[in-house]
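Marked as duplicate of an earlier ticket. Keeping the data here for the record.
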Amino acid sequence: MSVALGLCVVVCLAVAASGVEGRQEARRAAATCADLAGNDTYQLSFEGSWSYVTLAPASDPTSMGALGYRVFSDWSPGTPLFPEIVTMAVEDSGIAGEGDLSCDAIADGGYEWRPDYAVIKAKCGKNVEVHVKVAYTSSTTTCAQYTVSNLKQAPGSSTSPLSSSPALKLVFSGKAPNFLGATSAAQVNGTSISVATKATMPLPPYTQQMHRYWRVQTSLNTAPSLDAQSHAYAWSLSLPAAATKNVTFCLSEYDSPPSAPAPLAPVLDTSNTTTDINDWLAQLPVPPASAHIGPTEFKMYYNAWFQFWFNTERAGGEHWVRPVITPSMSRYARGLWLWDTGFHVFALLASPGSRALAKAKDQLTVLTTAGVAVGHIPRVVGATVIEKTTQPPGILTWAALVIYNRTRDDDFLRLAFNAFAQNNDWFYAQRLAKDGSGLCLWAGEDSGWDTSPRWDQGPVEAIDLNTWLHMDHLLLAHMAKLLGNATAHDMWTQRAHQSAAAIQRWLWDDSKGVFWDRLPAQSAVQHDGGTTRIRSPSPPGSFVDVVTPAPFWALLGNVANASQAESVSSVLLTPSNLMTPYHMPCVGRSEKVFDPTDYWRGPVWVNVNWLAGVGLDCYGQHDRASMLRNATVAVVNGQPEPREYYNPLTGDGLGAKRFSWTGAVYIVTLQEMAGNSDVANTLHTILQCRHSK
């Protein structure tokens, strides 16, 4: 074969392969609700809702579900606010009857979950089939449609003796909330039940009362019974032989006592819910099919995107001036978290759609508005309470610039600049160490690494905090330049030089070849975030040499020199430290305090993987960055839905379900695998990374 012919064959094959891939990509459309269907997810909600429903097909197959609620989900996450809305029971009233019939979900195909609804199929005794379809029809209304079939034959038929009475009694019962400090009063209102619930939140600072009003409506034309003491209610009806009944119940939420019941359609209609979710899914670009993005990744990519719809709560109260994205409706529904929001915004901006952009801007509007009110960007903004602690600076400044790159909205940029400049100043006023190092301190919840052993000895001059502040200086300098403020640009640039010099002088350990946190040289009372665990102290000014991924922040902020960056990676990325079967753990495997299931004392947090990867790319360590991206995709793929954190030895999902930042990082990671690194490139350009992709 001649060289020319060989080249032709190679080129032709490449073009042919490209054409096939192109045709595959053309056939792949955005996911829909049907594409995300499965049988291993059990929660439903609606964009803007303050509640969610948890289904339990294995143990409670005829239940409408248990309703979890906003602040209550943090107060007692294992106990829903409204656990007994409606549950169906079957009684055999025949002479040769069976009494109460136990109901069990059908083993094969008895449960299907979709983003827009769930269906449970059950068998009660030998002759009763039940299909329960549960869905949100709006952000304040949840409905369940029961289709119940009596398979017994009528008396006198060839299969049923004349002496048998095959009529069945169906009882649909529920109970108003009345536990754990939540008290309710219920009353009959025509064919419906009205419930007024009051709960006092004992979760500081959320020690306020919550008043909510509910109504359970039904398509039945009969009034329910009500026990005045227990607040239990029930509707009953007869189901004749060989008959099928359709019964619908809806639970609606109100801010004040509701007026007369609204008419209820006899059939549950989920078309609006389905359309709204499908429209949201269509906002996200379809990832190209590749070796990295197959069917599993495609489904998880859109499942992660759906979470933003699922975890959004409507505006309300004093501080939620826009709809907010919570970390997880089932565990952290009480508020909007600071550094979680940065990751959420990065993922939302993967979409070119206006709906996603508006949601991204809403999050920053809520946080900056609260920041102006309290003097710095707070850790959590609840609807009625602001938690006045803090979380990482810089990440929202970065997010705001990614938004600005899309919109070129100078007014938005000016508001962001003022809020984040104020926030940076606050750190140096309130968290500056008193040892003259020029470094700031933090510990506990302020850091975002709440229970990390990094602060077992108290607050530290942290490598991540001071790198965040350094990045923030450069990001603010860039904002000032865009706004035409040369004086501010020069001032923030000078601060960046000072913060980088302080990190190099005080936090680099030349003997170990790594950056560490450092105990302040002069002891002082410092805010510790409330989660510090004190162990045997080291001398003031000592390095806190517990192995974690935190030294990668020096790469993220382009503070390390080239040899330091290589040393950090070589020291940390070993099997005895951070290269566990599922990497990276948030504490080195060889550390005595390493615990693979204990929050920030061992598990994998994928946001840490991603930030470390962005830092590695800054120094041209692309193979290591790709390794972390692949590790993130693999560990998230191992569960039906994104989890809060993961066991680094087994890959098991831990903590909250449908965790927003895990899904966000997954989306951004797949975007990077497909060649879209806009978020990282925004940072790398401003930090002047010479080796970024």
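See parent ticket for discussion. Confidence is low (pLDDT under 50) at residues 1-26, 157-164, 524-536.
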